[in-house]
Design brief:
Elements lengths: L6 H12 L3 E3 L7 E3 L6 E3 L18 E5 L18 H6 L4 E9 L2 E6 L2 E6 H14 L5 E7 L6 H13 L7 E2 L14 E5 L7 E2 L6 E4 L6 H17 L4 E4 L9 H17 L10 E5 L7 H7 L7 E3 L2
Parallel strand pairs: 3-15, 4-5, 4-14, 5-8, 8-10, 9-10, 10-11, 12-13
Antiparallel strand pairs: 1-2, 5-6, 6-7
Helix pairs in contact: 1-7, 5-6
Length: 309
């Protein structure tokens, strides 16, 4: 297993979409193939959002993400990722699913009962360092309480202590609406999965359309994933979220080994390769088949760029 989500995987996925030429038509919901430009700007996974205009609504993007982004330890039934947050961001991931246990006035990152040897401040430091180095990018972050049962007011109090006492407020965009890319660059867009945090209310039905059947077995999960992609293409407007992950029957890695290649084939096939505006796609172990790179390439229609290491 490589350390990254990874450059080789990114290139493998992108190559599947670009081999026939440059793809055009980002706003229409579908790509059309055209001739490759003779001179294209080199673009890495670290800076892929730099190819897109400031006026692009985030709900028109295709955003690779990780499910349970901090879950790397605890055995095969617990681990959902094999790369740390900084490597995820460097490899093009732009949605983080952050599960916080409230304990002793701070947030510890958990997957169920398993502490991940990671604190919320570590996640925020990784995001801040990355965004300082790559100000064209943004990170959408779901924040959810995990393995603690404090009140929403107490959870909010701890979160605000990170903003004000620990100095992270400038890192966040805390407005309640979905931004354009220009309004989000250089910051973490909070998707609040707890009352009173501020930011965009995660799962607000006026803003989101979410597929997260985490108990579907892999053969039953795939049709739900495909249907959500098709809905995003044919009924744009909301921010679609389409979890590829499932915890049914087998450990996350085993399920990912079955689902991720299927999704990769769908999105590089004759029909799926033309789709745009697919929303947030959280995954387990996306680096193994280059799925993050495939998703990124769905944003780069006609942008005059070439993907490099």
């Amino acid at each position: 297993m490589g350390l990254g989500l990874d450059r080789r995987g990114f290139l493998r996925g992108a190559a599947g979409l670009s081999a026939a030429g440059v793809l055009t038509g980002i706003g229409s919901g579908q790509f059309t193939a055209g001739a490759a430009p003779r001179r294209a700007r080199a673009l890495s996974a670290q800076d892929w959002m730099s190819a897109l205009g400031d006026g692009t609504p985030v709900q028109r993007l295709t955003i690779p993400g990780t499910h349970d982004s901090g879950a790397r330890i605890g055995g095969p039934w617990v681990a959902c990722q094999n790369t740390p947050v900084d490597a995820q961001l460097a490899s093009g991931i732009r949605f983080l699913d952050v599960r916080c246990r409230a304990i002793d006035g701070v947030f510890a990152i958990h997957h169920g009962a398993f502490y991940q040897q990671l604190m919320f401040g570590d996640v925020l430091n990784a995001c801040r360092s990355f965004l300082r180095a790559h100000p064209s990018e943004t990170v959408l972050m779901r924040v959810k309480q995990e393995y603690s049962e404090v009140s929403a007011d107490e959870f909010r109090r701890i979160f605000v202590s990170y903003l004000d006492d620990k100095g992270y407020r400038p890192l966040f965009r805390l407005d309640g609406d979905l931004p354009t890319l220009g309004g989000a660059r250089g910051r973490v867009v909070l998707l609040a999965d707890s009352d009173g945090l501020g930011g965009v209310r995660y799962a607000d039905p006026a803003l989101f359309d979410i597929q997260d059947d985490y108990m579907a077995e892999p053969f039953g999960k795939y049709p739900k994933i495909e249907a959500q992609f098709r809905k995003a293409v044919t009924q744009p407007g909301k921010l679609f979220v389409n979890y590829v992950s499932t915890s049914a029957w087998l450990p996350p890695r085993s399920n990912a080994d079955r689902l991720n290649p299927q999704v990769e084939r769908l999105l590089t096939g004759s029909e799926g390769s033309r789709w745009t505006g697919l929303g947030i796609v959280p995954m387990d172990f996306p680096n193994e088949v280059g799925l993050a790179g495939t998703l990124i390439a769905h944003n780069l229609a006609g942008q005059g760029v070439r993907l490099v290491r």
